[in-house]
Amino acid sequence: MNILTIDDDREILDFFHHLFHQKGHQLYFAHDKSSTEKAIKRTSLEIAFIDLKLPDVSGLQLLKKVKQAHPACKVVMMTGYSTVQTAVEAIKLGAEDYIEKPFEDITLIEKVIQPEKDQQDIDSYIQLAKNSGLIVGKSQSMKEVVRIASKFATKNLNILIDGETGTGKEVMARYIHEASSKKQNEGPFLALNCGAVAEQILESELFGHESGAFTGAAKTRKGYFELASNGTLLLDEIGEASMPIQVKLLRVLESREFMRVGGEKILRTGARILAATNRNLRREVEKNRFREDLLFRLEAVTITIPPLRERKEDLLEISYFILNKEGLSHLTLSEEALELLYEHEWPGNIRELTNVLLRGSAELEDNANVILPNHLYIPLNVSKVKGQNNFIETDSGPISAQWKAEILKSIDRGDSLNLSHVMEDMKKAELQVSREIAKKALRTANGSQKEAAEKLGVNPRKLRYILNEKN
What we know:
Strand content: 5-15%
Helix content: 40-55%
CATH class of the largest domain: Alpha Beta
Structural class: alpha/beta
Shape: globular
């Protein structure tokens, strides 16, 4: 193999010469911008090790030059602790990985020169992702997300996972845990939703409490930081945490130390911290709703999960994965049903798709095993229609506010409700609103179903289904 090492430290160059020369590899060395450019032009390169800090040029610039001249060349960045954030950027630019100086473990370096490992690694992380409930699929965007997640799973860095609601942020967090050394050490994976509990309860959940710390604290209780000490802790919906909680989280991330509520003893945690949010935390910082210093600590690496509408090529695989997971592997989707699924924008992403498929399976008659369009409860995306088409004026919600209020009042009163009847009423109300929208669009289009369908953002088949479906 042709291997290029770029570093201004003579000891590093000697180390790589000793490591690879005796194994029969052709070695090239460079120490600055000029010598690197000469080496790049001299021969084809298969592997390059690049130091991030050189006297006259950035390692990131050299990464780009190497990749431009030799696209198939595998690049590994070498970095000191202070430049880890830049190494993260390098991986996003296409670097294979990064190693920290001084080299404590040379197995990663040796692994890079074993080409048969590449496909094994790819197959391994795709299978591990699937086992964790994460479908990689065919979309390049999702493959890139999982590639980056796989690289950083084994690094001792905090990771911020962002994405729209329902995209599978907790599933991604679980995958990162499964691929990490924390899992290998049999550490637990714990997730806590910061927006699901009140501030006082959240503090107790995170840090634990001593007996008598507050009303109802009858005995000492460990918190999540303690319970996940040798594992992984996901702080889900981190953007919902109050400012006082954010201050305490910052201290833990900086010092790894905390005290239980009502306690005086300083405890330490070794938990790997992941955080997830569907908010734009940068915008929250600008609005003084989120601490910038906490964001800096959380986002050593940021992984953004693409929404389902941007990976429609994976929809078929995801749909059957959901059915199999729910014990419905005997069911299939008709071509017409699939067409409806592909047409929808999925604002609720995979969570919404799961609900649609489970409800569709419940609509089947006994012994039926094919899900048809009439089994799928997929409403028109009315809010989208309102935003894009001036000729429609309707509420963004498909069910009237008054009807919804009455149902909620009944629940509060403790009235006995037949859930199947409520769901049926919801379906009827949804269909009525969808039909009214479709009729209005049809009138505006002078009876042209094709034009009306285009204005509504659906295909003609779905429009006909809405117009013809009976309550």
